[in-house]
Amino acid sequence: KIESSNITIEVYGGTLSIQSGTVSGLRGMNIISGTVNISGGTISGSDTGLWVSGGRSITISGGTFSGVVAVQVNNNASVTLKDMLAAGCAYHQNDIPVAKAEGLVGDYEAGEVPLDAKPAWLTGTVTVQKCEHNGKDVCTYTHTSGATTHQKTCLACGNKWDEENCSFGENGKCACEAVLAVALKDNAELTYTGEAQTPEVNVTVDGIALAAEKYQLSYDNNINAGNTAKVTVTAVGGSFSGSVSTTFTIGKAALTIKANDQTITYGESITEGTDQVTAAALCTGDTLKGITLDASTKNVPGGTITPSAAQIQNSSGADVTANYSITYETGTLTINKSRPTIAFASGYDPSKTYDGQTIPNPTAGNLAITGANYADVTFEWSAEPKKAGTYTLTASIKETPNTEEASTDPLTVTISKAPLPVTGATVASKTYNGNADASVRRDL
Predict the structure, then answer these.
(1) Is there a contact between 239 and 233 (Cβ–Cβ < 8 Å)?
(2) Residues 373-376: contacts with CB under 8 Å, at least 24 apart
(3) Residue 106: what pLDDT?
(4) How far apart are CA 150 and CA 398, in angstroms?
(5) I need a labelling partner for 192 at 20 to 30 A (CA). Which of 222, 234, 389, 393 fits?
(6) Is the dihedral of CA 33, 34, 40, 41 positive or negative?
(7) pLDDT of 436 over the 60 cut
């Protein structure tokens, strides 16, 4: 045990070894030159435990240092805090290796500096012992440019490990800060084709292209339109661990569906079905399975036919309509006037014996009508069919904007004379005389 109120031990030359014991004072030890080996003991100072202002060969493999400043090397020292540590040893505070020191980061401003900076110091209580490389930010990783390897270095003791493969997390970042990235080449714009799409990609590590033999690609959700298609990069032959993915967009395929032109007759409906449209640019394996067709009018001369609500399926029967950006084009609808027909029903004959009453027009049941209604019919008699005589009757359908004119053949209708009965008359008998005369006498 060595104590002093000032500098307890000051080394100017020679060799000094401290394996145990206690050294204390205002400044426990000051090394200006010489060879010093410290493997144990406690060196403390009310101001500084160990001060190195020069030195030649200093090796610390153990011991505890304490003070306002536990260990310090100044600008003139021939060694750094890091240089003084024996192989495999590190400064520790609370059993955690110390990877950084305090020092000057400006002309007069103190801040965090590496252990090989000068001047540099450690405050409080510091113990030197075998390094276990534990603790946050104690170890650092240096990436090998253009490769998928890095080297691990302990900042506390200076140990360097052999190069090892990078391990990339979900964001493509490794502990060595290297970033594995994948992107579509030339920002390729893709559209739905009905088949799986495997666009070319650029795979890089820190912006440098990665050799193709080091990775493989896999694709998911890469058939249908949308923004969920994904390409994933994984290692080949264990060249690294982890993976990185990127999504890409498959746009909808442009499709034009045009209604075919149709010509119908008034009163008819348009023909519907997928064979009544033309679908330009359907993708391989896809089929139009359904379409709705709407006529703009039912009247002459016509209008347009509008397609809508297309239903498209692939070869597996799945609905793939959502993969298309559909443009619907109208077709021309031509509506011709209908040609109604009208005839008197078989057996219809309103002829009669004169009874003083006008013959009524035929009823709907007396007519055979197509393409029109009974309300559309007008009747024309040659004269009012009331007195005895012969008449003709014609039934007609007038032309309208939607129908042509139609009429029956004239029907001959006869009103026979009614017999006139005579009563109270006497027929006189006669003997045959070869004459046709006879007489009827009525007594009044």
Answers:
(1) no
(2) 376/340, 376/400, 376/403
(3) 79
(4) 98
(5) 234
(6) negative
(7) yes
Residue 229 has pLDDT above 90, yes or no: yes
Evaluated on CA atoms 299, 305, 311, 315, the torsion sign reads: positive
Average pLDDT, the chain: 93
Cα–Cα distance for residue pair 9/193, rounded to 1 Å: 85
| Average of per-residue pLDDT across 406-413 | 96
Residue 248: what residue type? F
Is 250 in contact with 190 (CB distance < 8 Å)?
Answer: yes
Residue 203 pLDDT level (bands cut at 50, 70, 90): very high
Burial 342-352 (b: 16+ CB within 10 A, else e): bbbeeeeebee
DSSP 264-330: EETTPPPP-SGGGEEEETPPTT-EEEEEEEEES-SSTTEEEEEEEEEEEE-TTS-B-GGGEEEEEE-
Residues paired with 37 in a beta bridge = 17, 59
Q: Average pLDDT, stretch 250-277?
A: 96
Name which residue leads in pLDDT, 296 or 429.
Answer: 296
Q: How many helices (H) and strands (E) does the chain have?
A: 1, 39
Q: What are phi and psi of 158, to 5 degrees?
A: 85, 5
Structure confidence at residue 171 (pLDDT): 85
pLDDT digits (tens, 9 = 90+) for 330-344: 999 999 999 999 999
Residue 56's pLDDT band (cuts 50, 70, 90): confident
Q: 306: burial class by Cβ within 10 Å (0-12, 13-18, 19+)?
A: middle
Residues ≥6 apart with Cβ < 8 Å to 38? 17, 18, 58, 59, 60, 61, 62, 63, 128
Q: What share of the chain is helix, strand, coil (3-state, %, to 5)?
A: 5, 50, 45
> H/E element holding 3?
strand 2-3
State how beta strands 377-381 and 389-397 pair: antiparallel
**How buried is residue 335: exposed, middle or buried, by Cβ count under 10 Å (0-12/13-18/19+)?**
buried
In three-state secondary structure terms, 331 is strand
Nearest alpha-carbon partner for 135 in 98, 86, 174, 161:
98
The DSSP call for residue 83 is H
| Cα(128)–Cα(63) distance, integer angstroms | 6
**According to the model, what pLDDT value does residue 421 have?**
73
* Cα 330 from chain centre: 30
- Omega before 97 cis (within 30°)? no
Residue 443 has pLDDT above 60, yes or no: no
Mean pLDDT of 32-44: 96
